[in-house]
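To: structure desk
From: M.T.
Subject: fold request, one chain
Message: Could you run this one when you get a chance? Sequence is below, nothing fancy, just the single chain.
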Amino acid sequence: MDTSFMQAVIFDLWRTLVPLTKDHKAAAMTATAAALGEETPEFRADWAHTRSERETTALPDYLAGLRAARGASWSAEQIERAMAARFAAHYRAFAGLRPGTRETLLALRDRGVRLGLLSNCSSDVREMLLRAELVPLFDTVTLSAEVGLMKPDTRIFRHAMEALGVTEGYYVGDGDDGELAGARHAGLIDVLFDLGEGRSGTHSVTQVDDVLGLVSGVRQ
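Reply: Done. Structure tokens follow.
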């Protein structure tokens, strides 16, 4: 395979383009628990153990299911407040968008490269992306909560590839959730966004614009 002319680049979101930190996550958890009146270790444990459900369905449906499973009596108003508080805590991470992200995406597009975003996330993330004006920079955005699949399942990578209309390309991510192996199994060339955590990939970059050195554009 000639890797100088990849047809597409698919990027991970959290920690790759947007540095969602432990502090952001802790703030979101605290705000959500407070809004629901569930500030207990048991609630936090249930929340952690049901991540796959939370990130493969609509957030209101997930919260309704969690309420039923816990035998809780959260009101519709409490759930609405919890979602708003969680949204605000996570959206603050977008203020730290990696330097050069917008410029790199525009440069890749100018080279004729198809661009995708692929994220394991809850359903409210699409609105975050819209508010941050990132959606127009991609040809397709694939969110686990919308397609009912999570990385490293090869099917979610292939879903993104099919949406882009490509059969090959690069996948750039920090390596969480075994995503790099999943990308390779789906036929993509994996690129580690290296955060200094001892992970490895077929290629690695430390800045978003390093991707420009890997991708020359589409074959004429």
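Reply (cont.): The chain has two domains: 3-18+97-213, 22-93. Let me know if you need anything else for the meeting.
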